[in-house]
């Protein structure tokens, strides 16, 4: 969201801006589809299209065009195999195609629509063509759709809005750290707790939604789906067990429980006595997160994020 906020700010300041977008990548290209960068008339730069000497070269080209006023939409293909035609100077192999779009104050309403979409968790589509950029309420089946027939015959569409949601059940210190990190990773973050006036929940300014609920009703608040992830970290063993019992037979991309090995061993034994099969418990990530000996809330957040990203990317 910060990218679009910075872009809007520059356009509102009546500056010309070049929007650089990676619309195709092949092989080990450092830039991936959807990577974006803005280069403003005042020299302000934000975002990335892959880094390194390739990015530096394209940014300098955008700066020169802004300086001369020779503003046009065009594609730039970069081949990352050393010094050759269209070569980027990088040796990581692979290719990427970057589109340069010059923007000005006339594009403010488009960027405002994109920000409104993100702020209100509404889904839409960013569209780029050889003549314009735009935003529509169309919903794509995939994250990206594109076709490049020639430098003058191509299109690029990108899903705008959250594709992944993390539900955090428990609003304590670890929940705050997990919220902060997952928001930066582009997740829609929802936090639940059953305690009124909880200091850490009130101080959590990162989560998109914070709800006080009866954990007996938790299944009514957590949506199933391949883009939905659940992290259970309440302040009591009995609540962890209750929430897991309510959610374990639902379909999620990921479900994990925070806790020590000893605590979880006991929980598993009790849940089996209550009718939960071991095959069902085997899908639960517990202890939650990758085993990196994490101790602080922020270290635990990193371990959870690493595990979730691994699963998310393997399923794409």
What does this 3D model show about the protein?
With 316 residues, this protein is of the alpha/beta class. It contains 9 helices and 14 strands. The chain has helices at 2-12, 52-68, 108-119, 173-184, 199-202, 237-247, 261-273, 278-281, 297-314, and strands at 17-26, 36-40, 45-47, 74-79, 95-103, 124-128, 133-136, 144-150, 153-160, 165-169, 188-193, 209-212, 225-232, 252-257. The strands form 3 sheets. The chain has a 5-stranded antiparallel sheet, sandwiched between helices. Strands 12-11-10-13-14 form a 5-stranded parallel sheet, sandwiched between helices.
Element pattern in H and E: HEEEHEEHEEEEEHEHEEHEHHH
Query: How many domains, as an integer?
Result: 2
The SS-based structural class is alpha/beta
The main pleated sheet reads as: 5 strands, antiparallel
Helix count, DSSP H or I runs of 4 or more residues: 9
How many DSSP-defined strands?
A: 14
- Cα-based radius of gyration, to the nearest Å: 23 Å
Task: Tell me, rounded to a whole number, the average pLDDT.
Answer: 91
- Give the oligomer, counting copies of the same chain as homo and different chains as hetero: single chain
Ranges with pLDDT <50 over ≥5 residues? 88-92
User: Into which percentage range does the β-strand content fall?
Assistant: 25-35%
Q: Calculate the terminal CA-CA distance, rounded to whole Å.
A: 23 Å
Share of helix, binned: 25-40%
Biggest sheet, spatial arrangement of strands: 3-2-1-5-4
- Shape type: elongated
